[in-house]
Amino acid sequence: RVHCRIRPLLPFDTAAGHSISQDRQRNFSEKVAYAADDETVLVKCSRPGHASINKTFQFERVYNASESQDTVFADVAPLLTSLLDGYNVCIMAYGQTGSGKTYTMLGPQLEENFAFSTEDESELGIIPRATQEVFRLISEKPPGSYWVEVSVVEVYNNEIFDLLAKDSCGKVFGVKRDVVTTREGKSDVPLLTYETVENASEFLHLVNKGLQLRVRHPTLVHAHSSRSHLVVTLTITTIVSGDNFGTSWEGEQTSQRLNKEVSCTFPQKMRDNKSTSSSRASSPAQLEATEKLKQVKTRLQLVDLAGSECVG
C-alpha cells in the first residue's frame, strides 16, 4: 500500500527567511501540489515560456495538508491486529528532505536533543501511536503469552549502527554492526542489541535514547535534516500451545512463521510470572514435558528514511 501525505507551507519554505504574504502562500501551494480527492494528487507544473501542465498521480490514500496525525494513524491501526495474528508488518516514510517524514513517523521533535516530544498527544506520530496500540492489544491476551523486544538501528553510508548498544559503564552509544548471510540466504545482524520492554513508556524511552545518536546535518531546506535511515523494530514472541496451534495459526504461511519448540528460551520475566506458572509446571523444562509449546516471532518494522533528493 502506498499513501501520500501533503504538508502545509512551513517557515523554512520562505525565500531567504523573508515572510510570504497569504496570497502568495496560497498560489505557491497550488502550483506545487494538492489533493484532488482522497486518492489523487494533482501537480501543476509550470516553466517560463511553457504552458502550464497538470499532472495527476493515483494512490491508495491521499492526505491533504489539513489532515491530522489521528487521521493518518487510523489507516495504519488495522495492520497491527494482523501483527498479533502472525504476520510481519513494515511501515516506512519516504520523501525528499523537509517533506514531513519524521513528523509523520515520530511527531514534533525537541530542538535541544532531537528527541520527539510527547507533551501534545494529538501531535504524536505513527511510531509512538503504534506502540501504544500494540501493547493495548497485548493486554487483551492471556498474561504471559507474549513478550516484546525492541531494537533501534541507523543505516548511514551503507553501514549499520546499533543505537541501543552500551559501553562497559552502561551508557548507550552507536556501535557499527556487521551484516551476515545465514545458511537460509537471509541477511541478519547477529550482534544487534534487543531490549525487552513491558509497556509503551519503556519502548519510547529507548527510542528517544537512540534518536539522540542519529546523524544530522543542516541542508538548505531543513536545519535539522536526518541524513540516515532509522529502523525501529518491535519483535513480538508469542507462546502458543500445541493443541491450539492448529486452529489458531492455519494457512500455508504457518510453517514459515513457526519457529522451533520452546525449551529454555523464556526470558526471566516470563519464568517469574505467577499468572503463567500458577496453573502449570513451575519450570520451562517441566512445562515442556507436560505440554508442547510453539514459539512464533513476528516483527513490526517502523522506518524513517533519510531525505531523498533524487526524483528522476
UniProtKB/TrEMBL annotation:
| Gene3D superfamilies membership | Kinesin motor domain
Q: What is its main location?
A: cytoplasm
Gene Ontology CC annotation, any one: microtubule cytoskeleton
Q: Which SMART domains match?
A: KISc (SM00129)
Name the PROSITE patterns for this protein: KINESIN_MOTOR_2
Q: Where in the cell is it found?
A: Cytoplasm, Cytoskeleton
The annotated region (Disordered) lies at 268-287
Where does this protein hold ATP? 95-102
The Kinesin motor domain extends over 1-312
The record's annotation in Pfam families points to: Kinesin
Q: Provide the GO MF annotations for this entry.
A: ATP binding; microtubule binding; microtubule motor activity
Keywords on this record?
ATP-binding, Cytoplasm, Cytoskeleton, Motor protein, Nucleotide-binding
Give the similarity note.
Belongs to the TRAFAC class myosin-kinesin ATPase superfamily. Kinesin family.
State what protein this is by name: KIF25 protein
Tell me what organism the protein belongs to.
Answer: Thalassarche chlororhynchos (Atlantic yellow-nosed albatross)
The organism that produces this protein has a lineage beginning with: Eukaryota, Metazoa, Chordata, Craniata, Vertebrata
